[in-house]
Amino acid sequence: MPRLHPEPRERETVRPLELFFDLVFVLGFTQCTALMASQPSWEGIGRGMLVLGALWFSWAGYAWLTSVIDPEEGGVRIAMFAVMAGLLIAALCVPEAFGNRAHGFAIAYGVVRVGHIILYILASRGDVSLRRSVATHAITTSLIVGLLLVGSFLNDGGQEALWALAIALDILGPALFGIAGWRLVPAHFAERHNLVIILALGESIVALGVATDVDLTAGVIIAAVFGIALAAALWWVYFDVVALVTERRLTAAPEGRVRNALARDSYSYLHFPMVGGIVLSALGLEHTLAHISEPLDGEGAFALLGGTAIYLLGHVALRLRNAHSVNVQRLVLAVVLLALIPVATKVAALATLVAVNVPLWAMIAFETSNYGDSRYRLRHGIESEPSG
């Protein structure tokens, strides 16, 4: 008979149940795109990003949790399935989270957050420092869930304001209450975030599926090819070097406050704009494939160009946090993409998609050439990060 209480994590690799669990979260990410697509306005984009923020910091909490306990052992497996049910309901409510399903989302989301705290309480038995951190986190979690519940009864901007406050609490909580008591397994923690980036990039591929609803003309085929090229470029920008370097820094960091701060900043905080940028670019791809010969509207142009820029700025901030230096080429390209948003509203959407790809791949070629032999050594575990 299986033991009911949680067992400490012993393996560094992500377990199958964690990937299964993340797939439900990614459904929520996909639903954020659906929300923004159904409300093609700046208000819709803002709402989509608020929902994404709520889902992201909930997911981040579970990434920390499963770096302490084994999710497939004891009663944790059943508890994770129960949380997945609540999460699925929340995801189904996302497109109307600021409408008819506001109450449903808040309640289902509350179940997900409360489940996280209960599992953490069980996991912290015998660890006074961790138990103290969990207790303080339970306070902010209660406030966050309460804000979403109250917000579900409001309108005319009141709900959005309370959602923004709830997300701010998720961000500020660790800074206010400290992070020394938390624990994690570096290799597992990094891999978990690497996988969620891949799953988010899958959202870009899903967006390309809109081609099934339009005639498969030569223009649509070209747009689909450049859409895949964009997703591949975003993958390359992260996984070629950045993911390896970030994991290595986390592993090398002293256990305790220093490592926890690095994990919080590099992963829980700075991976959020990366995921947000990917989700926005997926929305932009959807707009592009639907209207390849027409200019994008302001919101669509911002989604495609601004989403890619936000993704790059997340990388710039990540390097600044960890290496205290600026990746100039990524910063410059992000600024250029933002500056091109007004232009994108005057040229064909397909031309804009091509215009995103060309400088992005040129930057990749430059960086790969600039890193040279040090890149090879890094990717094969021989040498530390390349400069650039």
Structure description:
This protein is mostly helical. The chain folds into 2 domains: 183 residues; 203 residues, no CATH class. 76% of the residues lie in helices and 0% in strands. The chain is globular.
Q: Distance N terminus to C terminus?
A: 55 Å
Radius of gyration: 21 Å
Q: Give the tally of structural domains.
A: 2
- What would you call the shape? globular
Helix and strand string, N-terminal first?
HHHHHHHHHHHHHHH
> What are the low-pLDDT stretches, counting only 5+ consecutive residues below 50?
none
**Strand count, sense and closure of the main sheet?**
none
Total helical elements: 15
Count of beta strands: 0
Instruction: Give the averaged pLDDT, no decimals.
Output: 89
What secondary-structure arrangement, pairings included, does this model have?
Elements lengths: L15 H23 L3 H24 L10 H18 L8 H22 L4 H24 L6 H20 L8 H23 L9 H22 L2 H11 L4 H13 L1 H20 L7 H26 L4 H12 L1 H4 L4 H31 L9
Helix pairs in contact: 1-2, 1-3, 1-7, 1-11, 2-4, 2-6, 3-4, 4-5, 5-6, 7-8, 7-9, 7-11, 8-11, 8-15, 9-10, 11-12, 12-13, 12-15, 13-15
Keywords:
single chain, 388 residues, mainly alpha, 2 domains, 15 helices, 0% strand
Brief summary:
The chain has about 400 residues and is mainly α. It has 15 helices and no strands.
